[in-house]
User: Fold this.
Amino acid sequence: MTYLVYGALGSGSVPVEAALTLIGAPYRVEEIVTYASEAERARMAPHNPMRQVPVLVTPEGETITESAAILLWLTERHPEAGLAPPPGDPRRGQFLRWMTFIPAEIYSMYWVRDVPSRLVGEDEEAQTQIRRRTKDRIAACWGVMEGQTDPGRFVLGDQLTVLDLYMAVVSRWRPLRKRFHEVAPRLGRVARRVDALPELQDLWAERFPFEGDYADPA
Assistant:
């Protein structure tokens, strides 16, 4: 009863892989680096018509796309792992709020900024403007989340949830952790706790090494 994850190094599949690791469910990853080339995106098309990762194939053969949907589904499939407040829990509303906020307001920006020619063609000045404005928009959104949450050890208090995994990975992307810590210092402390979880050290080292541009500033 093994899960299959279509994913890529440093991508949105990493929080899914982290959740499966903490759950203790067997899974394997098929690497399709959709951010690398049109050929890789074409390889992804049979599994996801949006031609992007992550995709989860359940042991029963069901295909689920969209990182937030996968993470939420996994918490329902494996409630024993305690990676989400259950229905009726007073934290549930804020959990769902931020699990939706990250993909809607932040993750979605990367489709634009990673390949700005999708919207403005080969106009280099317009591409530069898109990269600058999306970088500022992403930072502003992290600032909104910072101002609307009251983190403890983790975003929702003392319980680790998939929200923490999601934030820890997405905050590694541009404008990178330095800017993230500037606009969201309390969330930044949470992210560092997630980075340091002993259960995930092997996964981070293999799937999203925290080095080079992605190294967390001291």
